[in-house]
Amino acid sequence: MKAIGYTQAGPIDAAESLIEFETEQPTLGPRDLLVEVRGISVNPVDVKVRANVSPEQGHKIIGYDAAGVVRQIGSEVINFQVGEEVFYAGDITRPGTNSELHAVDERIVAKKPQSLGFAEAAGLPLTSVTAWEMLFDAFGLKEGEGEGETLLVIGGAGGVGSILIQLAKQLTGLSVIATASRPETIDWVKKMGADHVINHRESLVDQVKALELEPRYVAALTNTDDHFGAILELIKPRGHVAVIDDPQVLDIKPGKMKALSFSWEFMFTRSMFQTEDIDKQHQLLSRVSSLIDKAKLVSTVTNNLGKLSVDTLKQAHTHQESGRAIGKQVLEGF
């Protein structure tokens, strides 16, 4: 089968930063699905892995979102049948989705929203799982809770921020402040449903205080190092900060007086460690699929680059690395 990957980590402008090659069809485990990939998306994790993680041997295939058609099922699969259309975020410990066929554990897969095409559906899983786990696992909220409280989303126009705003507004009572710095990103986060928009290139403290709001929850999605002092000043006592990026230094000691809680969110944890509740990702993606089909959530895709190829995938990686990506970029299958 065809796949796109690399043999040596490095910058996207290197001659062979991404290459197409032929490889063996995946072998299925008992709970695995073999999916014919019809759509993929690009996330920050794709560019981080490509730039920093060289293969132990041979080629490394990345790609952590997919939508496609089930072509084979493992001996113990219970949720899916051959021919069904599915979507999912994959497992970082296994080969990725930038290939014609892909093997994935059914417990992190859901049926694709019927109202979306394959590429557009592929723009949702990784960010939706991340946002859902932040709201309902890290923050410990239950659906319908949060009335009278505020969520501050730092980096609201990215993939995770775009769906996090929507989930918070549709499934909780939270008021949402989102940060954005350009006219187009400000318009985008308003479209996603943010109640208030502030500029993360200016003083977060001054802007939030001007709103006369005190966030109980903070989703630190980008540049946490730069904003952490402001987060600690703004957040309510006994508030909760959830982080998804990679801060170099994070001193949480100043949070003691406010009795703050801190969480890392890493949506690959359940699949990486085969946790006893791994099936929660199947369940939450099924809910997201239903909410999309009921028009309670909208697509966060802003750019479809066409068929998957070395050239189009390089374009997507380059734009993702630019720091100017809004929502999600997707590609069709080969």
From TrEMBL:
Please give the InterPro entries that the UniProt record associates with this protein: ADH-like_C (IPR013149), ADH-like_N (IPR013154), ADH_Zn_typ-1 (IPR014182), ER (IPR020843), GroES-like_sf (IPR011032), NAD(P)-bd_dom_sf (IPR036291), Quin_OxRdtase/zeta-crystal_CS (IPR002364), Zinc-ADH_QOR/CCCR (IPR051603)
Q: Which UniProt keywords apply?
A: Acetylation, Cytoplasm, Metal-binding, NADP, Oxidoreductase, RNA-binding, Zinc
**Pfam families in alphabetical order:** ADH_N, ADH_zinc_N
Location of the Enoyl reductase (ER) domain: 10-331
The subcellular localization recorded is: Cytoplasm
* Domain of life, per lineage: Bacteria
User: Which SUPFAM superfamilies would you find in this protein's record?
Assistant: GroES-like, NAD(P)-binding Rossmann-fold domains
Q: Does the keyword Mitochondrion apply?
A: no
SMART domains for the chain: PKS_ER (SM00829)
What cellular component GO annotations does this protein have? cytoplasm
Q: Which GO terms describe its molecular function?
A: oxidoreductase activity; RNA binding; zinc ion binding
Say which family it is in: Belongs to the zinc-containing alcohol dehydrogenase family. Quinone oxidoreductase subfamily.
The subunit field of the Swiss-Prot or TrEMBL record says: Homotetramer.
- This one is known as Zinc-type alcohol dehydrogenase-like protein
- The species this protein was found in: Motiliproteus coralliicola
